[in-house]
Amino acid sequence: MNDPNNQFTNPKDFWDSLHLDILTSNQKIMQEDYRSFIERSFLFSLFFRGCHPLELVGFRRILHIKENGYVIVLNFSELQLNGTNDEVIDEFEIHQFIAKLFHDKNVCVGPLVVNRICLLITEVEPFSNQNHRDDSYHLCYELISEFKRQFHINISIGIGSPQNINALYTSFIDSLTALYYRHSEPITYYQDTRQTEVNSHFDYLLSEKHLVESIRLRKTEAYDYFGLIMDNIRSYNDETKRNKILEILVLSNHTMSLDSQEEVKFIDYTNIAKELMDLEGDALIESAYKNFISITSYVKPQSNIDYSNHIVKATKEYLENHYDQDISLEDVAEQVNISPQYFSKLIKKTTGYNFIDWLSMLRVKKAKELLTNSNLTVKEVCFMVGYKDPNYFSRIFKKRIGITPSEYIKTSSYFNNKS
């Protein structure tokens, strides 16, 4: 169904706008979500960008962060988190869920980075070893149980070491290491990985090979292999550490440029080498992590759409003309003459999003236009954009936009009257 009143005359403009909606849909914040936004910004700065001491002081005051803390990392399977239908949980929903679950604790919830979320738990008094183990296990088992009950999602968790607030990066690295060395258990405590590390036979070249392959395929496992290599060189002297770190960063940056559809910014190795010369011991490892994250952007999936791909073009045209109908992934795969399995993988690889993301966001985008520019009821719009159940449509709309269709109509009317 083509809308003659559509404001986008160029199909590329429409899909660029739709793509922007997908990227920003989870960033629409209401008043009650401000704390979530601040917490995510704080932990992203602390672990992925580098937090200036004055920033740390400011965040501590705003969020009432205590003197001692530890980090746990929740690992979701990407399949489960993306889901196979429209019911996809977002970061604000996760934050609100955890905040309610642990309302009596000082917990900060970090950003969703591909398929992981880090939590920071702080207290006034230092943690004793046994109390920390018992308390953290209890908290993690509760998280696993409640995520399973509420969202039907399985998670695995790595528990980091207790640290002073100024040394939390160590706890973050410990939690990632715990995740890497976990076996069949859903929870791994950082101390339990020590013996595993000592007893395991480490193959540097094999780990390096896996690292390169994971970076090339933009898999989050790259971070795990990088961490494994860093753990292995931690006992080396500082000169050897510097050489190995620079070597692996150069290799990572080069790998990022292979088969990339985006222009990759090559790093200034001279500045990194100078930075490393001024550091010693574990500070070298910390610098290596931050540079690796900067180079790979945590090997997150690409978000730019390749409009030259004929499958994407055909999918775009079909969805634009049939979004108001009861269509499935299999229907579109048949139209472009490839198997549903291959179509699903190709769309995800080419666009960075799955088929359901595109369809639901296209429908919601069309619904916004109809709700804003007509006197149609929510129920009428629901049917016009391809949904059969107005209640379900309202839930999807709220998940994507942050407010219900009825609230959106009131908001749009208010701003239209103001203008």
Number of helices: 20
How many strand units? 6
Supply the helix-strand structural class: alpha+beta
The best one-word shape is: globular
Low-confidence parts: 82-87, 299-304
Please report the distance between the alpha carbons of the first and last residues.
Answer: 31 Å
Using the CA coordinates, give the radius of gyration: 24 Å
Total domain count? 3
Q: Please state the average pLDDT score.
A: 78
Helix content: 55-70%
Query: In CATH terms, what is the architecture of the largest domain?
Result: 2-Layer Sandwich
CATH class of the largest domain: Alpha Beta
The major beta sheet can be summarized as:
6 strands, mixed
User: What is the helix/strand order?
Assistant: HHHEHHEEHEEHEHHHHHHHHHHHHH
Short description:
With 419 residues, the protein is α+β, with helices and mostly antiparallel strands. 61% of the residues lie in helices and 7% in strands.
Description:
The protein has about 425 residues and is α+β, with helices and mostly antiparallel strands. It folds into three domains: about 35-195, Alpha-Beta Plaits (2-Layer Sandwich); about 200-300; about 305-419, Homeodomain-like (Arc Repressor Mutant, subunit A, Orthogonal Bundle). It contains 20 helices and six strands. Strands 1, 2, 3, 4, 5 and 6 form a six-stranded mixed β-sheet that branches. A hairpin with a 6-residue loop joins strand 2 and strand 3. The longest helix has 23 residues, at about 130-150. The radius of gyration is 24 Å and the shape is globular.
